[in-house]
Amino acid sequence: MDFNRLYISSEIISFFQKETTNSLQEINKTLQDKSGIVAFFEKEDDFIKLKQKIGKSGSEVCEPNKIEYGDFQTNKKLALAITNYLSGKNIKPQVLIEPTCGKGSFILSAVQTFDSLQQIFGIEINENYLWELKFVLLEYFLQNPTGKKPQIYLYRCNVFKFDFRQIKQQINEQNLLVIGNPPWVTNTKLSALSSVNLPTKSNFKKAKGIDAITGKGNFDIGEYISLMMLRMFSACTGIFAFLIKNSVIKNIIYEQKRNLYPISNIEKHAINAQKEFNASVDASLFVCRFNSTPEFTAKEYDFYTSKQCLTLGWVNDKFASDIAKYQKYQSFDGVCPFEWRQGIKHDCAKIMELERKDGYFENALREQFELEEDLVYGILKSSDLKSGTINTSRKYIIITQQKIGQDTAYVLDKLPKTKEYLLRHKDYFLKRKSSIYNGKPLFSIFGIGDYSFKPYKVAISGFYKRSEFTLVEPNGKILMLDDTCYFIGFDDFEEAKITQFLLNKPETQSFIGSFMFTDAKRPITKDLLMRIDLNSIVQNTDFSELQHFVTYDKWKQYTNKIRSKVKNEINLFT
């Protein structure tokens, strides 16, 4: 251990300077008496190195160091506020476990808050963080010598390899608190951990087929650790309190219907992650009680004011972000009679997405060239979908297929300029990483079919927090959408206009808001859109609401078509 990389306070230095023993056993006994930490020095070599550092003149205080593991430590004020909140709920833990304890703000605040604590277990892979925690605890108890000292066990270990069963066997009927702040901010910040402190990559949510390939099999590290702790300890008597991303909390409650963890009194306390961690992410304190009859909803609060905002979770067999609002509009929850489609996926934007400049096409490489117009279409992205109607595009795309898997050889045979352009850049297509292109023609795209060539589309962005729908019209040629968007295609303008109106009605928007999670990476999904029962919305719409743009005969034709689609769907399952 290199103690030159650590901050060591003058009080700690003074303490060790006064200790004259050279025996590892004796110094560890003294330190356990002073701080409660069992085996303060695991190796005699560390004891010797610390004495050498302290013995050097002019090296009493070193600057704190930020280590390469992604420094998003919980600040002391927030950690203390959380333990005080738990104490205010009359929670009196006897055993505390923190699976990624870092520099130990939660452990220190727990020592300050809970007189009931008898044992503390902290696991951390970063050796520097563990030493900082040891020094912080020692300093605290040197300043508070009469404070109750639980037995404190600190383990340097990869949390994914640590055997928590050894702790579980010791707990018996004692009250347990599992607390912490597992890595949750961004995957890029965790990249330094990729070789040593990540679980074996696996499809741990059991996603199937294309979902596993395209992302539903991915997971958040904080979610993985949360589920580890729930699986291991939820049958014990105690409390779980983790700072995690809101998306992780949503996933835990969503999967609770299947997992049936014995947890109850589930709460989500929203924090200001920008203020607390300087991180642009939505996160909360997730709290629940172990060893209970499983519950499937969570009350959401503002952590700073304790004001209850809403309740999320399951209503019978439906999942909602705001249960009270959902119950008001739940008659709209069913199956959409139209199938929502995702836009074009190509994973080759530098070559496939173009702009028109000075009579030429230009790609992201700033190359200018000519192409036949046959396969060139305007394309809209999420940022293009504002409100109302749109019939122009900033960018263009080469549509190499009319359906998935279609042979693209005709592109090379009939369109010489397009052929030359694509072949010249074929390496970009060959380097596409997604396995969906394996075994497919060279210039393949996805999200393509008859529906793509419908002249009118009702579309929405998958990434934005608003749920307003845009009507896309052709402008001499059909407009396409990229894979950040979802749409329904129509041959008839008035049908498209009526559908847009129904989807943008205040009642429909409130319904969508009741089960849309705005803090998700993709708030709008196909699964969400397919729950919008347009037939039910039609039944709650009077013709007078839309008579300014459609005739009564057209309205009746539309409603009959919707009912016919619903009847056909019912017949499929009878």
What key attributes describe this structure?
574 residues; alpha/beta; ten-stranded mixed β-sheet; six-stranded mixed β-sheet; 21 strands; elongated
Give the secondary structure arrangement, pairings included:
Elements: H1 10-18, H2 24-35, H3 44-55, H4 76-88, E1 95-98, H5 105-113, E2 119-124, H6 127-143, E3 151-156, H7 165-171, E4 176-180, H8 209-214, H9 221-233, E5 238-245, H10 246-259, E6 264-271, H11 273-277, E7 283-289, E8 297-302, E9 308-315, E10 318-320, H12 323-329, E11 341-342, H13 349-352, E12 353-357, E13 360-362, E14 368-369, E15 376-380, E16 389-390, E17 395-398, H14 409-414, H15 416-424, H16 426-430, E18 456-461, E19 470-472, E20 479-481, E21 485-490, H17 493-504, H18 506-513, H19 526-529, H20 534-539, H21 552-572
Parallel strand pairs: 1-2, 1-4, 2-3, 4-5, 6-8, 15-20, 16-19
Antiparallel strand pairs: 5-7, 6-7, 8-9, 9-10, 11-21, 12-13, 12-17, 13-14, 15-17, 18-19, 18-21
Summed up:
The protein is of the alpha/beta class and 574 residues long.
In this structure, how is the largest beta sheet organized?
A: 10 strands, mixed
The span between the termini is 71 Å
Instruction: Give the rounded overall mean pLDDT.
Output: 90
Number of helices: 21
Estimated radius of gyration: 30 Å
For the largest beta sheet, what order do the strands appear in spatially?
3-2-1-4-5-7-6-8-9-10
The class by helix and strand makeup works out as alpha/beta
Low-confidence stretches: 57-71, 185-195, 207-217
Task: Please report which band the strand proportion falls in: under 5%, 5-15%, 15-25%, 25-35%, 35-45% or over 45%.
Answer: 15-25%
Describe the global form: elongated
**Strand segment count:** 21
What portion of residues is helical? 25-40%
